Amino acid sequence: xxxxxxxTMLGVTGAGTLAALTAGWPRxxxxxxxGRGDDELRVAMLGTAQDAEARTGLVQAFRRRHPDIPxxxxxxxxxxxxxxxxxxxxxVAAGTPPDVVVVATEGTQLFADxxxxxxxxxxxxxxxxxxxxxxxxxxxxxxxFMYDGHLFQLPVDFNAANMYLNVAAMRRAGLExxxxxxxxxxxxxxxxxxxxxxxxxxxxxxxxxxxxxxxVPWLYANGTSFLTEEKAPGGDWLWSRFYAGSPGVAQRxxxxxxxxxxxxxPKVTEVYEFLxxxxxxxxxxxxxxxxxxxxxxxxxxGGVGFTPAGGFWVEGLAEAKMPxxxxxxxxxxxxxxxxxxxxxxxxxMMKASQRKDQAWEWIKFxxxxxxxxxxFPVPNTTPVRRSMVDEALYRGKGPAHWQVFYxxxxxxxxxxxxxxxxxxxxxxxxLIKHTVGAVTGSARNxxxxxxxxxxxxxxxxxxxx
Length: 465
Hints:
Elements: H1 3-7, H2 18-21, E1 41-46, H3 49-53, H4 56-65, E2 71-76, H5 81-93, E3 100-104, H6 105-114, H7 120-125, H8 127-135, H9 139-143, E4 146-147, E5 150-151, E6 153-160, E7 162-166, H10 167-172, H11 184-198, E8 203-205, H12 216-221, E9 230-231, H13 236-242, E10 256-257, H14 266-280, H15 295-300, E11 304-309, H16 313-319, E12 327-330, E13 341-349, H17 356-366, H18 369-375, E14 382-383, H19 391-394, H20 404-411, E15 416-417, H21 424-440, H22 446-462
Parallel strand pairs: 1-2, 1-3, 8-11, 13-15
Antiparallel strand pairs: 3-13, 4-5, 6-13, 6-14, 7-11, 7-12, 9-10
Helix pairs in contact: 4-18, 14-21, 21-22
């Protein structure tokens, strides 16, 4: 998943209020709008024309297999996911919807609730062909794209929030790579050691204020979240067919449900008090909103000790001329649990598409071994296929312990997606706003701030997505 995918906010309002809102949305440029009546499969993605061009090989390979299906990849530029989804909804309202859209975890339930077509009947129809895909993909990634018992996307890439470690900063502080089961208290001790030897401008721990990689991984590690978490019934049609006999398959479900605030859980307070202490002691950055786009360069230049990131950072650090020997990765620290969070992405078939069978062929091809090798030739994300996360992918670029990226799913079975209900935009806005207040003020301000967060979350979850 690209850095933009994991580092931007989602802020789109539901299709039910589309007519009233489109006037205030960013306007599409001429290059954004597909031609009416084009007899081709249209695939929309967030990005630039260069991003679309990079998929030329993927399109050509698909056309060789399906010469009867013309396809075009439409790169829609946007400042963030909010901008992108707004433009997709505008195309739907204008009667020129794309057939397939790349959707990250942040928008999965919004699309499933309003815009996307379930893939169940296609998967069941082509079960023999799909068996190879499911045998190569961890079930946690599939479950993240279930909603109300139906499967809405085939994930193609993911990123868990692991901890990146700057080797030079650790050596300067007399530290070694921590063990797999290190704790949040071990983490705190290491930050203090790095701060003592770091010098002016050095930041022992850099984190940004967003849903992925912000406060959420600490909440998961402490056995909690800012939203209540349930699982929907259903999904047996998939689990019994493709994952029969897999460890923990009986606990798989029809998808996650986040329907209430959990901000008043004492364990949530514990996490915020911990992060407030990190900031107050000068051990970590103040939670800046969004951004983080300069963080790769800052980490590569030695200005940061630890930071949460996923496999998508490997290629960025290589481009910043930081060799794999200069950094390493480790699982996120343990607290009450060592549960991790991840975000993923895949292609969603639009309900409004008139080319659903063709759309399925594209989705299926992109999930194939050939399609994924063409889509991910370099380590700028973590492919969902276990067989692709290997030494060859990271040779000459990756850290010594690159296995951490996929082992996160295998070692910690409760690891799950970032909490992203259909009302995710309003939910994330509330989280970002109150996280700043909770960790930058005095200790006595934490609980009142979390009460305000609780009220805002309940209000957001009662709204129509």
